[in-house]
């Protein structure tokens, strides 16, 4: 399991859902992209990020680009969770650097099955902030609901 998870979503309902799903894992919650980037600077032990696309101040793709542009943060796996789930949306998110793409509404089991797989693919090296073992990019669940993740 990850040491700490960052959930970036403007919905407090999503925050509460993730708190229930990961009741034994510390969570960092952010309601918008700017807040998330600040939180990343303050919490160096984040191993996994869940990121919404449609948010105020800075959308999820902008946040994703800023994280991937930062060498200290670029290796953290990011799962996009969004209502935007058409094939071109999924492709755009994965091409931008997301490890996986999950369409809202999602089933809790879907998230709980995804996390161990991502943690296996993106093992934290435990040395420097953001340093991780090289791993392939995980495939997204197609909008049809079927796929490896």
Considering the chains and any ligands shown, give keywords for the structure.
149 residues, alpha/beta, Rossmann fold, 5 helices, 5 strands, 14% strand
**What's the CATH topology name?**
Rossmann fold
How many strands, which pairing sense, and closed or not: the largest β-sheet?
5 strands, parallel
The appropriate CATH architecture is 3-Layer(aba) Sandwich
Q: How many domains make up the coordinates?
A: 1
* Strand percentage: 5-15%
Structural description of this entry:
The protein is α/β, with parallel strands linked by helices and 149 residues long. It has a single domain (5-121), classed as Rossmann fold (3-Layer(aba) Sandwich). It is 36% helix and 14% strand. The chain has five helices and five strands. It has helices at residues 12-21, 33-42, 60-69, 87-95, 108-121; strands at 5-8, 27-30, 48-51, 78-82, 100-103. Strands 2-1-3-4-5 form a five-stranded parallel sheet, sandwiched between helices. Helix 4 links the parallel strand 4 (78-82) and strand 5 (100-103). Helix 2 packs parallel to helix 3 (60-69). The longest helix has 14 residues, at 108-121. The protein is globular, with a radius of gyration of 14 Å. It starts with a strand and ends in a 28-residue tail after the last helix.
């Amino acid at each position: 399991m990850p040491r700490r998870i960052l959930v970036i979503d403007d919905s407090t309902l999503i925050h509460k859902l993730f708190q229930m799903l990961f009741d034994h894992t510390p969570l960092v919650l952010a309601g918008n992209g700017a807040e998330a980037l600040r939180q990343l600077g303050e919490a160096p032990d984040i191993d996994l990020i869940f990121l919404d696309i449609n948010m105020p101040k800075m959308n999820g793709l902008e946040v994703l680009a800023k994280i991937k542009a930062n060498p200290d943060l670029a290796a953290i796996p990011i799962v996009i969770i969004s209502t935007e789930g058409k094939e071109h949306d999924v492709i755009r998110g994965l091409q931008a650097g997301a490890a996986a793409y999950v369409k809202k509404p999602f089933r809790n089991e879907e998230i709980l099955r995804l996390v161990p797989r991502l943690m296996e693919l993106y093992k934290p090296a435990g040395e420097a902030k953001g340093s991780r073992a090289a791993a392939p990019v995980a495939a997204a669940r197609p909008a049809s609901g079927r796929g490896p993740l």
